[in-house]
Amino acid sequence: xxxxxSRRGFLGSLxxxxxxxxxAGAGNAFAGVDAPVRTSPMSPVGNIYIDxxxxxxxxxxxxxxxxxxxxxxxxxxxxxxxxxEQHNEHMAMIMDTAGALLVSQxxxxxxxxxxxxxxxxxxxxxxxxxxxxxxxxxxxxxFLDVVYDICDSLKTHGITTILIVNGHGGxxxxxxxxxxxxxxxxxxxxxxxxxxxxxxADRSKEFVDIGSVPSHAADFETSIAxxxxxxxxxxxxxxxxxxxLNLNEKDRKWDKDTFEESKLATxxxxxxxxGHAVNWVTExxxxxxx
Length: 290
What we know:
Elements: H1 3-16, E1 43-45, E2 48-50, H2 62-70, E3 76-81, H3 95-110, E4 115-117, H4 140-156, E5 161-166, H5 172-186, E6 189-194, H6 219-228, H7 249-262, H8 267-289
Parallel strand pairs: 3-4, 3-5, 5-6
Antiparallel strand pairs: 1-2
Helix pairs in contact: 3-8, 4-5, 6-8
C-alpha cells in the first residue's frame, strides 16, 4: 500500500470519528463549525455505527445524558485540559487543546457508551509564553478552580470516575499538586495524565524517532497535527530569521531550533503517536472503571 493510500485511510478513519477538520459533509448540520475538533456523521464502534458527537457532553442534550445515566450505561468521564498559546511560526495556537480532545474522544469512542468527554479547558497555565504574541494564560489557581468545578459538576450528576487528560506541559505541575486534594475533597475516583505519558522512554526499537517528548511545536506535536488536522500546520510565507520576535539571543536560538526540528515531522509518525496514546489512555480508564 502506498503512503498516500495509507494517509487517505487514516484521515478517513478520523473523519468517521469526527476528528479530521473539514470532514463535515454538506448534509451535516454541523458543517462549517470551527471547533477544536470538527464532527462528522457516523463512526464505527465495534459492530455498530454511531454519531461521534454522542461521546462529547457539549454536543449532547440533557435527555441524552440523563437517559444514559438512568440506564446505568454512563460510567466515567474524561476532562481534557489544554491551552491557547503560541506554537512557533507554523502551528495553530489551539494545538494543546485539540490534541487532548483528540485523544479523549478517540478513547471515549473505544469505550462507548460508558464514557463521556466534557467540554475541554481551552486555556491553561502559560505565563512562560507571554513574550510570544497571541498566547492566553490563566493564573494557576483559576485554572485549577475551573478543573475542580467541572469535576464537581460531573459528580453532582452522578459521574464519580473521572480522568483528566492533559495536553499542555504548563498544566502538569498544578494538576500533579492538586488532583490528590481534589480526589479527597470530592470523594471520587479521580486521576490525571498527560497523553504523552504513554510514549516509551526508549523509542529506539519499539517506537518511532520523534525527538524530545513532548517538546513544543517540534517533531512530536507537529507529527500529531499533520496526521489529524494538517490544516493547522502552515509553513507558507515563513522566514524565521526575519520574524520580529523580540526575544533574547538564547530564546531566539531555541525557537529557531524547534522550528527546524518540526520539519522532521511526518503524518505517519503522528498516526503511531495517536494510536499509542489512545490505547494507553483507554487501558488507564478501564482500570479506573474496574
